[in-house]
Amino acid sequence: MVKIYTTSTCPWCTKAKEYLKSLNIDFKELNVQSDMEARNEMIKKTKQGHVPVLEINNEIIIGFKQEEIDKALNNIR
User: Which residues form the Glutaredoxin domain (predicted)?
Assistant: First the structure.
């Protein structure tokens, strides 16, 4: 399962979502700007408040790091 923690105004969040879509990867988006429960969950997992945060098969990736995303995705395909 892939989760992505985002905000509405984050350009890197948009890039990360577009990248996942280009790979036909289903993901659950959690907007931490409007969803306090998601924000608290993200901070608990990462100890920080920057987005995007991708959670791929329980692996946390902070920021749009394509190489790390690809590596994590290879582990779930």
Answer: 2-61
Compute φ and ψ for 18, nearest 5 degrees: -65, -40
Angle separating helix axes 11-22 and 66-74, nearest 10 degrees = 40
Confidence of residue 1 (pLDDT cuts 50, 70, 90): confident
- Among 67, 47, 58, residue whose Cα is nearest residue 3: 58
For the segment 3-13, what is each residue's pLDDT rounded down to a tens digit? 999 999 999 99
What DSSP element (H or E) covers 62? strand 59-62
Alpha-carbon span 30 to 3, nearest angstrom = 7
Query: Taking residues 42-55, what's their average pLDDT?
Result: 97
Tell me which DSSP letter residue 47 carries.
Answer: S
Looking up tokens 């931490």 gives 32
